[in-house]
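re: ur question from earlier - yeah i can do the single chain one, its not a big deal. heres the input i used so u can compare w yours
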Amino acid sequence: MTRPARGILFVLLAAWAVLPLLLLVVLSMGRTWFFPDLFPTSWTAESWRLLIGGRLGEALRNSMLLAVPTGLVAALLAWPVGRTLATAGRVQRHVGAALAFLPVAVPPVALATGLHWSFLRLGLGGTFTGVLLAHVVPATAYASLFLLGVFVDWDERPEAEARTLGATPAQVRLLVTLPLLRRPLLEAWLLGFLVSWAQLPLTLLVGGGLVPTLPLEVFAMMQAGQDRFAATGALLLSLPPLLAIAAVRLGAGRTDAVPV
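and the output i got, formated as tokens:
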């Protein structure tokens, strides 16, 4: 491919990625915008002011309060699951990986329906705790497969040396394994965070509409024709994934390549 063609392709890809976000920015601040006007005829920051004390603010807080612990619990649960699968035989590993990924492979509505029925029996339907536990299920599935890939190439020699020097199993996990897993666990937490952050079916069915989150509010505002507020919520939903991509790219750029 020639250099001019690569330049044109890059511009097209950049426009494809950036223009929808710019449209959301304009839509979130446009008070009146009618065809065939290219831009809104008047502007307002009303939708952004709702982040303090309004519906969007409450939904944003709930989404954060769900996503942060969901990522943490998913990473901690996925740690032993990923390591166990990595040390299992080939057949057991494939079967275990398939079972671990099953909550993600099934349709989200089917998973949400099953969890909703189960949590109603446990008295957790329509509660914040029930929604949190429901988010942990698919988040753990993603994190388990991620950490499986980490442990497949895991070097056990530092742990073996620590045991040889008299370290207890708890000391090995705390002083050797955990520092080596710091970045993979952080990435697993981030993966679980993003799974919870954008979760809609589980929140809607398990929460019964009683636990407002950002995806639910955006969906409701779209249905109500409140485009300006929905655009603001959509921008807020887009922010963590964009920051995650930037962080992963920055981390990859700082990682030295070691020739094998």
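The longest helix spans residues 55-87. not sure if urs matches, ping me
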